[in-house]
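so my prof wants the structure for this chain in the tokens format not the other one, which i didnt know existed until like an hour ago. anyway here's the sequence
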Amino acid sequence: MDLQQTAQLLANGIAVGSIIALAAVGLTLTYGILRLSNFAHGDFMTLGAYLTWLANTSGVNIWLALILGAIGTVGAMVLSEKLLWSPMRDRRATSTTLIIISIGLALFLRNGIIFIWGGGNQSYDLPVASAIDIFGVKVAFYRIVVVILAVLAIVGLHLLLQNTKIGKAMRAVADNVDLARVTGINVDRVVIWTWVIAGTLTALGGGMYGLITAVRPNMGWFLILPMFASVILGGIGNPYGAIAGAFIIGIAQELLPYLSTALAESLNLPWLAIGNEYKLAVALLIMVLVLLVRPQGLFKGTL
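here's what i got, hopefully its the right format
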């Protein structure tokens, strides 16, 4: 086993985990507060990446493009709230109905993106940046940027949830929506803020994913399983658990195929090797194994 290669994959896993963490936090917030398992979440992430790409290739600085992409995604999420989710809550739609609607919304978004921008891969208009040597490990510059931005976003989320009025209101609604309403909390305002925060984090995750890979129509769909695995692994409804679960999933997806292949070669047992094409299965396997031991996830599922 090559230690340098292992360190390289670990760095890649941290970058991927950072992106999954941002999207998973948005997913767990919408479930914890709205009780909505939103299968369109990955495609909103794709939308954020495409809006960022559109702004950047139109001459906008990449950092401003990320902000514009987030604003556009938040607008799309709030629109879906007004047109779909709010009427469905008023009709007391079942969770199964909401899941089916979210799958339909995901297909609508994905095919809308293909219709407008085509099915090919797109790239940001960015200069080529040299990799940075960190203790002998070559790490791509934009992967480091992704991790730093993700950490800043997570810290900002923590401060918002713990120290602001809207953050405390969101935690109260997540605990008991009826009690929160009786105590005078504007639940409708909390719902909108939930979409704003979820949309911002999800769009940033999509835009940042475009920094380390191509922008393509199915990018969010391929990440929906790791997102849900992270949410369930960390405890449904707990944003901090989702972050921890995302890093576990991201690192495992990068490391396990390589480590299993090295082990299979050393033991001369080729069936032990896990190919890179099974990365998504790794996320599902980890989730299942943890839930067999701790069904509620690693952490308590509340804000």
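also thought this was worth mentioning. The chain has a mean pLDDT of 89.
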